[in-house]
């Protein structure tokens, strides 16, 4: 009987998987330098590993994330430039978070030219709770001006200065939402683009130092 997948079990299995991957020589990765191809390999390999012992619904293009029932998306990135992309839904994600948790594998890749295999050394495995997935500078700036009794006009001006991808009506609605429910401090760096560009350096630095950001391995 397969078990039901939970957030705690996926964290535990991610730690085990990272340890196994460290000692796994993979011919299909030999000479591969494309980060997207490496990420697809590692994420697919991990999801297949989970499927051996757990019952869960894998994500699809409609859900947009890998494990929708647990609100978890799996990200894989090189230690050389720890970043990845994710779908853009609204400007609010930069302020209130992506809306789902992130399980991030940060790897360093080596090739063995004698055996013609590639190996991924998983340097960090980090779980970021959805409440911490907003943009660091945007949330820090908003929290700072809220402490100085910012009103709606101040917030709209801040949104314009940060060049958030939102029109005047959207900025007005965002300002109202911020006043009613101030955001929590986020720890991603999120660059504006057709797809959000997520950068993880601060997450790596702050793991286990900030609630909601856990280094699993």
> Measured on Cα atoms, how large is the radius of gyration?
19 Å
CATH architecture of the largest domain, by name, is 3-Layer(aba) Sandwich
> How far from one another are the termini?
28 Å
Biggest sheet, in brief?
A: 4 strands, mixed
Structure write-up:
- The chain is built from seven helices and nine strands.
- With 217 residues, it is α/β, with parallel strands linked by helices.
- The chain has two domains: 3-87 and 100-132 and 190-215, MvaI/BcnI restriction endonuclease, catalytic domain (PvuII Endonuclease, Chain A); 136-180, no CATH class.
- The protein has a four-stranded mixed sheet. A three-stranded antiparallel sheet has the order 4-8-7.
- The mean pLDDT is 94.
Give the tags.
217 residues; alpha/beta; PvuII Endonuclease, Chain A; 4-stranded mixed beta sheet; 3-stranded antiparallel beta sheet; elongated
How do you describe this structure in short?
This protein is 36% helix and 24% strand. It has helices at 7-22, 35-51, 92-96, 136-147, 152-161, 168-180, 201-206; strands at residues 3-4, 54-55, 72-78, 83-87, 101-112, 117-128, 189-191, 195-199, 213-215.
Layout: helices, strands, pairs:
Blueprint: E1 3-4, H1 7-22, H2 35-51, E2 54-55, E3 72-78, E4 83-87, H3 92-96, E5 101-112, E6 117-128, H4 136-147, H5 152-161, H6 168-180, E7 189-191, E8 195-199, H7 201-206, E9 213-215
Parallel strand pairs: 1-2, 3-5
Antiparallel strand pairs: 4-8, 5-6, 6-9, 7-8
């Amino acid at each position: 009987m397969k078990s039901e997948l939970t957030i705690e079990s996926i964290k535990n299995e991610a730690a085990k998987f990272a340890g196994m991957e460290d000692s796994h020589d993979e011919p299909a990765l030999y000479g591969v330098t494309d980060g997207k191809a490496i990420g697809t390999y590692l994420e697919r390999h991990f999801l297949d590993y989970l499927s051996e012992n757990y019952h869960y619904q894998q994500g699809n293009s409609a859900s947009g994330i890998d494990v929708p029932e647990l609100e978890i998306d799996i990200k894989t990135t090189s230690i050389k430039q720890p970043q990845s992309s994710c779908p853009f839904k609204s400007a609010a994600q930069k302020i209130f978070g992506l809306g789902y948790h992130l399980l991030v594998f940060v790897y360093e890749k080596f090739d063995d030219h004698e055996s013609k295999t590639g190996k991924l050394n998983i340097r960090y495995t980090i779980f970021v709770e959805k409440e911490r997935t907003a943009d660091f500078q945007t949330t820090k700036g908003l929290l700072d001006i809220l402490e100085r009794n910012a009103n709606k006009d101040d917030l709209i001006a801040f949104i314009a200065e940060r060049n958030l991808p939102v029109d005047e009506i959207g900025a007005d609605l965002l300002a109202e939402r911020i006043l009613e429910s101030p955001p929590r401090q986020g720890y991603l760096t999120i660059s504006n683009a057709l797809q959000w560009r997520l950068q993880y350096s601060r997450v790596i630095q702050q793991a286990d130092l900030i609630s909601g950001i856990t280094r699993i391995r």
